[in-house]
């Protein structure tokens, strides 16, 4: 698969994820947000432009550092 083909496949998959009613969030290994679908925008109230590249803790776990520590321990 060429780079152009891979990019087209990624865009196709992202479009499908945006149609989901559930929140779908993708983070890198440092917990920085790489993808934030329309369901996440609707549920959490943040647009993708507001969260892209930010640590997920700064967006979703502002009030619950203990909960975030438990999640990190599991993964």
Explained architecture:
- With 75 residues, the chain is mainly α.
- Helix content is 56%, strand content 9%.
- It has 5 helices and 2 strands; from the N terminus they run αββαααα.
- The chain has helices at 3-18, 38-44, 48-51, 56-60, 65-74, and strands spanning 25-27, 33-36.
- Strands 1-2 form a two-stranded antiparallel ribbon.
- Strand 1 and strand 2 form a beta hairpin.
- The radius of gyration is 14 Å and the shape is globular.
- It starts with a helix and ends with a helix.
Listing every helix as H and every strand as E from the N terminus to the C terminus, the arrangement reads HEEHHHH
Report strand %: 5-15%
Structural class: mainly alpha
The number of helices is: 5
Low-pLDDT parts are none
- For the termini, the CA-CA separation is 31 Å
What sort of overall outline do the alpha carbons produce when their principal axes are compared?
Answer: globular
Rg (CA only): 14 Å
The major pleated sheet works out as: 2 strands, antiparallel
Question: Into which percent range does the helicity of residues fall?
Answer: 55-70%
Round the mean pLDDT to the nearest integer and report it: 81
Physical arrangement of strands within the biggest beta sheet: 1-2
Q: Got a strand count?
A: 2
């Amino acid at each position: 698969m060429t780079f152009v083909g891979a990019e087209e496949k990624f865009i196709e998959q992202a479009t499908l994820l945006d149609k989901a009613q559930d929140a779908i969030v993708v983070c890198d290994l440092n917990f920085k947000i790489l993808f934030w679908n329309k369901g996440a925008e609707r549920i959490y109230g943040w647009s993708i432009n507001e969260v892209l590249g930010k640590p997920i803790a700064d967006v979703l776990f502002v009030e619950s550092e203990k909960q975030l520590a438990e999640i990190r321990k599991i993964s």
